[in-house]
Design a protein that fits this description.
The protein is an alpha/beta fold. The protein contains 3 helices and 5 strands. It has a 5-stranded mixed beta sheet with strand order 3-2-1-4-5. The protein is globular, with a radius of gyration of 12 Å. The termini are close together.
Length: about 80
Amino acid sequence: MIIVYGKPGCPQCDQAKALSQTRGLEYHYIELDVGQPKKLDGEYISRDTFMMLFPEARAVPQIVVDDTHVGGIREFQEYLKGQTL
């Protein structure tokens, strides 16, 4: 399972979701709570929790595949080149 942690208006987050969709991969999107209006079907994570999960991260998206932190969009693209999910 792919989990994409992102924020609204993030082109790289949209790219990570699109990569997953075009490859037919199931993913789950969790949005960083930055005070935006909430969607009824959305899932959100606080900044504090995000920083606890990814203490070295300085950007979004942060992507996790099968409970393993892959990294950002560049790392995810490289991961997909070498993996059959």
